[in-house]
Amino acid sequence: xxxxxxxxxxxxxxxxxxxxxxxxxxxxxxxxxxxxxxxxxxxxxxxxxxxxxxxxxxxxxxxxxxxxxxxxxxxxxxxxxxxxxxxxxxxxxxxxxxxxxxxxxxxxxxxxxxxxxxxxxxxxxxxxxxxxxxxxxxxxxxxxxxxxxxxxxxxxxxxxxxxxxxxxxxxxxxxxxxxxxxxxxxxxxxxxxxxxxxxxxxxxxxxxxxxxxxxxxxxxxxxxxxxxxxxxxxxxxxxxxxxxxxxxxxxxxxxxxxxxxxxxxxxxxxxxxxxxxxxxxxxxxxxxxxxxxxxxxxxxxxxxxxxxxxxxxxxxxxxxxxxxxxxxxxxxxxxxxxxxxxxxxxxxxxxxxxxxxxxxxx
Length: 362
Description:
By secondary structure, the protein is α+β, with helices and mostly antiparallel strands. It is 33% helix and 29% strand. The two termini are 26 Å apart.
């Protein structure tokens, strides 16, 4: 008999692996989970799991309901995920690419990111077909076994019974995938979807060159979870800037300062500001807005709640009610910037993708 040697402690720390499994399980669940349910789901004893969860709670990565003792992802985990997403280059262009594919095909579009020996779903745009694939949170793919064919830059195979996936690499670690019923995507029936995916993911579309951004693309670009940089004049005469979340309604930028935000006092005294938003990956779009910023009268705080809710959903993937409950006693200041000048530009070539080398056929 032969056995596979256990990994060394230097390459695999069991306690860390169990903590990660607990976090992954909490992130994938639709509702808070009890200790016993988590214990069964990840195969870790209740006493060991309780110690892990208490440690994660102390770090802000896990929260526990005071009402029923159930566990859910904590604000620290949300912040880590948001920070990671902002640095994950494929996410910067996924929304735009996925929107085009859904418009063309009506099928669900997924973004897969390489994680360990497999792939983890990082983003999804649900299709518009009456019969369509609806992905579940935490969806994963093994690195091998599911690929049935690779041709002309398209990888395809069965995701689950009756569900077919067509995928093309965006870079060496990410796949853009079209997922739907096998009867529409497998074999000759999927020719149109393969062509559309190859066109969008392969860089053959008109990304090249520089020029102004059209209004429809501007709105799509500004709807991403990009961080804006607000530039203003401080009291000592020096220019200053601060990174901010923003909401764009097609005509104006909406900002919500935190209670102790020093910049809010500076712009109140001198409202002439500029706001810049850019992406670090091709097509390298950037927006610069200039104009006076002003506080908005909102007696019942309804508009403030609406803006805060959209910010919570887009940047932190939080339920709006959850965020607003935590800010119930804070001042409700809402600022609006209607640009007097707005420059929206794109430039340089969109680089072609590199194939994922570790995907193999069954």
